[in-house]
Amino acid sequence: MPTQTTENDDIRVKIVYNGEVQITYVTAGITVDTLREEMRTICGFGAARSGTEPDQFTMKWVDDEGDPCRITSQHELDEALRLYEIEKDTEITIHVFPNVPAAPGMPCQGEDRSIYRRGARRWRKLYRVNGHIFQAKRFNRRAFCAFCQDRIWGLGRQGFKCIQCKLLVHKKCHKVVRKPCLNLQQQQQSSEQQTTDRNGDQQQPDSPQRSPAAHLEDETTESSVAEDPSRARTGSDEGEELALDAVSGADGANEMQRQYSLSDFELIRVIGRGSYAKVLMVELKRTKRIYAMKVIKKALVTDDEDIDWVQTEKHVFETASNHPFLVGLHSCFQTPSRLFFVIEFVRGGDLMFHMQRQRRLPEEHARFYAAEISLALNFLHEKGIIYRDLKLDNVLLDHEGHVKLTDYGMCKEGVREGDTTATFCGTPNYIAPEILRGEDYGFSVDWWALGVLLYEMLAGRSPFDIAGASENPDQNTEDYLFQVILQKTIRIPRSLSVKAASVLKGFLCKDPAERLGCGPSAFLDIVAHSFFKAIDWEMLEQKQVSPPYKPRLDSDRDLANFPPEFTDEPVHLTPDDPRVIDKIDQSEFEGFEYVNPLLMSLEDCV
Question: Which residue range or ranges hold the Protein kinase domain (predicted)?
Fold first, then answer.
């Protein structure tokens, strides 16, 4: 049997066989015979029976240089496990073939060395724990984790579902599920009965993944409890999802008719570029309205974490669409090679561009921007979202001079009051001390980043700039920057007012428990701070307070506030490469399409 449950020191094993990837977990002291039997069960190879030989197969693990190495003895398995520990790898990859090489050192029949290369085609993964065979799943309605009882959040494949018993769990919870798979228990009982039938003939039960039961609709109440622990429902879980799709399809027929494609837009100019994406200014041909279009190559979305990032950004864009100080989403669509986010076009440029011109801002200007940013952050926090990437580049100014936060790829969703996370991420100059210390953290990291940004606006430099660092290469490293963030006492410029110095000290407190905005009163402490005393928060949230600066714009296509290194680029998308597209698992992007119903209704008024 595959490993039943997992502990923190268990080893994750990725098994590649017959065009399918399955994940299981083994103990560090596993024997080669036990591993072989697990592979036999997982891949469905026949065992020895009376008068027959067991099916022959070959196991090969991939070493740190990407070369396949056979596992035929305990010594070879121990070597694989030893290198796994030395390299601190996240998993061991084992390729299984349904035959043995004709001679030592020869490839197996059907073995293609291209499968060992990075960037080879990705298949859907199956995760085997305690008899369950979990698959990443996209849910069309509210779903709850059968292990922790919390709601399964997010878009795309936000949870795992057992393809046999229909149990639903979070991705993070699947390894600790203790309840055995009901379908597997039924198979075992059926197998025991079969062995006594037909004049005592022994019958080998099908492997779990090949069992006909794995493809049947579940008629038990198991999935009902998993879907919503507060009440039981009857009927097929899959059938209910299909019914919901049919209903939503009927109710949203008009919306489905309005799904967008690249041909609906005129590409005008490049306005930004990042490591993953290009941002274009585009015109919706039907309405002549200007939008920004974020273009992401699917080939760059290479693992589960990247897919999670895309799903999170889409969900936060949707959540932010109706907030005055957050960039909202118009629509999403895809081609075989790319993903497209059509978002609000914010014409005033970003604060980094303006700070490079202004050097530093008057206190009343910085106070206005910090207050609008605070409202945006508080809105995200109330929705259970940690922003995690506040910086000058991500603060845009609209045509009136109001703030708009953008770029939600670093966001963490589903965070409730008191919850924490531990991912090391962010822009180095804005990373909070608790992240650098390796501590779990919550919303506190956003208020630290606001402190850094406010310091930059008021002082015209980072609080972590080191005098003479440019002449000393050792002080230009990321590690040195992190050491400064953790240990250096932040010096407030004497030119700043007492109130400004106080708010900076509050936000830039290295202890998150004492930081401004992180106490029991949370955001109310920021509202009540003397630095913000002149702010009418209700009027500000309604955009009834005049911004201190209004960008000069000649038209809705004016790009004077965007860096010429982007706007001078030629506007084109590179032709698709069929070989690259063939390696993309398109099912990973099911359900990506979206149209904002509010913006659609506004367009109807044009």
Answer: 265-532
Q: What is the pLDDT of residue 605?
A: 45
**Annotated catalytic residue, options 350, 389, 398, 407:** 389
Per-residue pLDDT tens digits for 532-572:
999 999 999 999 999 999 988 887 788 888 878 888 888 88
Which contiguous run of DSSP H or E holds residue 566?
Answer: helix 564-567
Instruction: Mark whether 389 is an active-site residue.
Output: yes
pLDDT at 193: 56
- How many alpha carbons fall within 13 Å on the CB side of residue 217? 10
Residue 269 — φ and ψ, nearest 5°?
Answer: -155, 150
Residue 294 parent element (H or E): strand 289-297
As assigned by CATH, the class of the 260-346+561-604 domain is alpha beta
List, in order, residues 6 or more apart from 65 with CB less than 8 Å away: none
Token pair of 322 as six digits: 């109706």
Q: Which amino acid type is present at position 206?
A: D
Encoding tokens for residue 587? 């099912």
Element (H, E) at 411: none
Query: What are the binding residues?
Result: 271-279, 294, 298
What pLDDT does residue 35 have? 92
Q: Does an H or E element contain 273, and which?
A: strand 265-273
Please give the annotated binding residues for ATP, written as ranges.
271-279, 294, 298
Q: Which fold has domain 351-541?
A: Transferase(Phosphotransferase); domain 1 (1.10.510)
- DSSP of 106-175, one letter per residue? PPPTT--GGGGSTTPPP--EEEEETTEEEEEE--SS--B-TTT--B--SSSS-EEEETTT--EE-TTTGG
Q: Tell me the C-alpha to C-alpha distance, in Å, between residue 247 and each of 164, 243, 244, 250, 252.
A: 26, 6, 5, 5, 8
Residues of the chain with pLDDT under 50: 1-6, 118-122, 140, 154-156, 195-196, 198-257, 604-606
- pLDDT at residue 339, rounded to an integer: 94
Segment 120-143, tens digit of pLDDT: 444 556 788 878 888 877 654 567
CB atoms within 10 A of CB 22: 23
Measured in degrees and rounded to the nearest 5, phi and psi for residue 572 equal: -160, 155
3-state secondary structure labels for all residues of 204-251? CCCCHHHCHHHHCCCCCCHHHHHHCCCCCCCCCHHHHHHHHHHHHHHH
For the chain, domain boundaries = 11-215, 260-346+561-604, 351-541
